[in-house]
Amino acid sequence: MGPGFGVLGPVTAWDADGNAIALKGPRHRSVLARLIVARGRVVPVARLVDDLWTDPPADAVGAVRTFVAALRRALEPGRPPRTPARLLVTDGPGYALRAATDTVDAWRFERTVADAPTLPPKEAVVRLDEALGRWRGPAYAEFAEQPWARAESRRLAELRQHAVELRAESLLALGQADRAAADLRAHTAEHPWRENAWRLLALALYRTGRQADALDVLRRARVLLAEQLGIDPGPGLRALEADILHQADHLGRADNPVGRVWERVAAAYDRTVAPGARARLESTAGLLRNLALTGGSGLPAAREHRVAAVEAAEELGDAALTARVIGAYDVPAIWTRLDDPEQAAHIVAAAERTLTALPAEGHDADKARLLATIALESRGTRLSRGPQAARRAEEIARRLDDPALLAFALNASFMQCFDRTGLAPRRDAIGAELVALSARHGLSTFEILGHLVRLQARSALGDFTAADHHAAAADALAARHEHPLVGVFTGWYAALRLDVTGQAPVPEVEAAYRDAAALLGGAGMPGLSRGLQPLALLCLRVRHALPLDFDEDTDWGPYAPWAHPLLLLDQGRRTEAADALRATPEPPRDLLQEALWCLTARAAAALGDRRTMARSHAALTSAADELAGAGSGLLTLGPVPAYLHEHAHRITDHEQTADRSAHR
Asked: Does the predicted model carry a pTM greater than 0.70?
């Protein structure tokens, strides 16, 4: 195990045994803190110089390198001489700290706060107590007011306040209102503008039988907000005051009717079903499916526990049980890039082993679910197994006439419908069947999926009237069935819709894309979120022939190879751009392949790279009727024919130039 890092207070580090690591002077600690703030991204040396000094010394770059060398010796004392650093690494123009999530106290704190709402109240209190106990002072204490640390320090302070309130809510759910009230009194005194803290304090006091004190707290909050901020209390405080005055029944309970039923049934299940019973695994698989649909911290938690459930099933040596545990996780998938490739590979391997272990005869439905799982979890790759598994799953489902199984298999077929560009019509047909099938049989999650698939496909084909209808239908179903993740996709579609109308100025469209990106915060979908915002802005600026003025430390995520040639061209660095273009791979087979091919096409045309122009022209010809990128439902580069015509003109120009040269 490597070293750990502490920023919830003065910046520090410790070794695997918990002993403090000597970090020398404040400049060394500031370099380390700056790299932790960057969260694994590269910080250019020039940026480090600007951040460390108001008036840099003559040899500031050399000084930074000295600090980095000293930090490396301190953090990796056992590293042999002249071997590459594994933790504080050199990457291109700067340095990055490749620290695991659980080695930085702030990152562990964030994960605990994100997980707390999904945990039973007792466990949430324990976890939050532990997390809050890691604070040793203000985050990034000695650097908290530095421009590069200020936003992160304040964000963590806000998260700490939220954690205190989450802990109070869990204590209230456990019936420990007195403990909650004691903590909240200090919290409201320290943070008097947090209305939720006042609400929780008043509720805690009411539940300890102190109605007058509860009302006094609410009235003090009202006066404070009015006199200091000139605002009235929000609806939460106003509603609580009215409920206390009327002694509403629900205030005296630490839960709600749904919560009471859940706790009673869970307790009965726990008493009745033996701890080692196989039924528990199947029940867990169903719960994980529902947890994944909640979004936020529920989605990564479901992925994590899913692996554990599959491993537990395999350990029992019952192939049929393992098949049911794997197949029960039929969570609809709309995005073609995996959130966790390592976990997906683990699931695919388990599904393949289970398929082999099942008897040759029978278990057809289980086999179809395993095949659909293999196809879904291998999306975006060029392996032939994915399409084969999707076809076989769909064949079995149609033969068995099982609507739920067919919906799952159609989702798999959709995910394997990207073997070339221009397949929006085929995906539209899959979406249409999903909508019709699911509506007939009450399969709400797959009905939503069908509408989102059609939203994407109709956007690719420029039919935004139909796409608008499917967005509205998906939103309505999501509201009715409590599926918050749908709003991420329809929110991004709204930004795309503003973009394609051409009626809004570019700054307004950029703001819409940034607002859409904010929807991804905490959604639990890194495969969707990483690099998406800058890619959308890049496509917008390329389409409008605007300067590509992005920050050096912009995180392009998986889209970096297709962005870099154009960024270098925009800076006038043609030789480097040509090298970057030659290194650009073919886009993955996913919802953005048309857009990425068009970025390659634009760079190739600008550089006169005929070979790459020919490759991109061949790849895009089958998408001549589509809007590049709009098939994602998120962004667009405009009509594909514009890039095809640009190539035709460029190739003709080059041929004419070559002919003139030959006749001289």
From this structure: no
